[in-house]
Specification:
By secondary structure, the chain is α+β, with helices and mostly antiparallel strands. 31% of the residues lie in helices and 28% in strands. The strands form 5 sheets. The protein has a 6-stranded antiparallel beta sheet with strand order 7-6-19-16-9-10. It has a 6-stranded antiparallel beta sheet with strand order 15-14-11-8-17-18. Strand 6 (141-143) and strand 7 form a beta hairpin. Helix 3 crosses helix 4 (82-95). The longest helix has 15 residues, at 175-189. The radius of gyration is 20 Å and the shape is elongated. The two termini are 16 Å apart.
Length: 314
């Protein structure tokens, strides 16, 4: 099937949003790569089309996104991770404004969107891809009043995410999650049984399903390199609801092993259901949930898809 494409050199307003300190724990200094991308973009685009938006605080992400929204930019490029990309898209969703074309250069702590879209960290390869102007639709999920691109979770993973501080993220990157996860397992599972319970309804069918932990996949990838659900895709207008019904320490250890080997779907205590809408309630009031690796909402949850996909140049 022939894919839609656009002539990027004909754009009149292009914004490059980047954080000069982003991704240092994983890739070292990103600025030489970002500078090279900027140079190539200026060679492709007409004079004064490219606007540099350097982020020095996370609050500036929404400010630049608001500028792109109000001034109707044609193309917004985010040199960062999934959290920055989500924060940009959320401004457009909140204002109910048409989305510009989007692109992602992988320069963050978590880069699952860039990984699934096969966007290289090498500037020359990245430029070769985007200058072709090939469009990939990416469907957004929404949990309560917040959007997400890759995953929503409540239970074990959200408890870990909720206890990782921003300072630890900056200092230790992905290792912060591993460290916090190890500590959480010791606290919650070594001496007592898992005490948290969730009930899940799919597509308003009136059936509440029991689970010890829940992950709603919007992307194929989860927590880095792991493939959670083979059928899940950013370009598919479907949610894949993973219900983890085992609640003993041995169950959680087995789930971790299955994650590592991409064999989760073989476990009989894991139920995977396709959905358009998911409702989740917990036995603990306001239990923290995670979206794209950040703790942003809490139970009860109402999760669905937005009606129109974003057009990524990838």
């Amino acid at each position: 099937m022939k894919r839609e494409h656009v002539e990027v050199k004909e754009f009149n307003k292009v914004m490059l949003i980047y954080n000069s300190r982003s991704g240092r724990q994983l890739f070292g200094d990103m600025m030489p790569r970002i500078n090279e991308i900027r140079k190539h973009l200026r060679n492709i685009l007409a004079k004064d089309v490219l606007y540099d938006a350097e982020i020095k605080s996370f609050e500036q992400v929404s400010q630049f996104a608001d500028k792109a929204c109000q001034e109707q930019y044609d193309w917004v490029i985010v040199a960062g991770g999934d959290g920055t990309l989500r924060a940009v898209t959320e401004v457009f969703v909140a204002k109910k404004m048409p989305m510009p074309y989007m692109s992602i250069f992988p320069a963050g702590t978590v880069n699952l969107v860039a990984k699934e879209l096969q966007m290289s960290i090498e500037p020359l390869e990245w430029i070769k891809r985007v200058r072709k102007g090939i469009i990939t639709p990416v469907w957004l999920g929404k949990a309560n009043d917040r959007v997400f691109l890759t995953v929503a979770g409540i239970g074990v993973d959200s408890l870990v995410v909720d206890n990782v501080t921003e300072q630890n993220k900056k200092l230790f990157s992905k290792f912060a999650y591993v460290y916090q996860g190890t500590g959480m397992v010791k606290r919650e599972l070594m001496k007592t049984a898992w005490q948290y319970k969730f009930q899940v309804m799919i597509d308003n069918d009136g059936i509440w399903r029991d689970a010890a932990s829940v992950i709603v996949a919007k992307s194929r990838y989860y927590a880095g390199r792991f493939s959670l659900v083979d059928k899940a895709s950013l370009s598919s207008p479907k949610l894949h609801v993973c219900l983890f019904t085992g609640c003993k320490r041995v169950d959680f250890l087995r789930y971790v092993a299955l994650f590592a080997t991409d064999m989760l779907e073989l476990d009989r205590t894991v139920k995977i259901i396709e959905a358009q809408k998911v409702d989740i309630k917990s036995n603990v009031e306001n239990f923290a949930a995670e979206l794209d690796g950040d703790s942003l909402v809490s139970s009860p949850l109402s999760i669905s898809l937005l009606p129109t996909p974003i057009k990524f140049i990838s």
